[in-house]
Amino acid sequence: MHKRMLLWTVPGVLWLLFTIWYTDFGGPLSEAEIDSGISSMQVNGFTSAEGLAKLRAFLTKDTGRQFLMVNNIDMNEHPPSMPGFGAEATAADYVNHYMEHMYTQLFKRACHPVFFGSGLGFVADLTGITGPVASGWDSAALFRYRSRRSFLEIIAHPEMQSRHSYKLAAMVKTLAYPVEPSLYVSDLRFILFLVLGFMTAILDILVFGVKQKNEQEQTPV
Questions:
Q1: DSSP per residue over 112-180, as a string?
Q2: Tell me, what's the pLDDT at 168?
Q3: pTM over 0.85
Q4: How confident is the model at residue 211 (pLDDT cuts 50, 70, 90)?
Q5: What are the residue boundaries of the structural domains of the chain, listed by start?
Q6: Which terminus of the chain is less hemmed in, N or C, by CB atoms within 10 Å?
Q7: What is the dotted CATH code of the domain comprising 65-179?
Q8: pLDDT tens digits along 64-113
């Protein structure tokens, strides 16, 4: 019985440790955290008053929960020249340069991509948007952020502003906006719970279920 309990305890502890790391238990951002993050962005070169005001409004309404960033992208087939790259540089080169920094900052805070996809050139519904901006989206991506706190830490990083210009140069247009999921079956905590539970149950059956069956067969009636 001790070994059987250990079989279930180990994956349970692993899931609990992952959940603790994957979840922000700090609650909503405080005013001091918001002020500090925005000040860092200003020091690092982000000086758009309108952009900072919108960011502050987003951070002030923090719920402390995870959210997804929805990205609609129209890549630039002929991007402008950027420092450190030759004239033959492609949009993919610039995006890779940007993501080289972003992936490091994302993964260390339990933030990560959820979905990448290519556009099929068909607009199913279109209301209130006209002109070239309404079409031409050739890719989409979803990124999971552990919390608005993690998001602020990432965008306030000293290297963020210099790298972000390469992302913008790689695109003709982009639209990125956050959503807070009410139904999210791709949550890794849920997936890991199912995987560990399934694997542990199979091992339990193979090891202890078979053993118990053999013992019952050997017991004289």
A1: EEEEEEE--S--S---S--SGGGS---EEEEEEES-HHHHHHHHTSTTHHHHHHHHHHTEEEEEEEEE-
A2: 93
A3: yes
A4: low
A5: 1-27+184-214, 65-179
A6: C
A7: 3.30.70.100
A8: 999 999 999 999 999 999 999 998 999 999 999 999 999 999 999 999 99
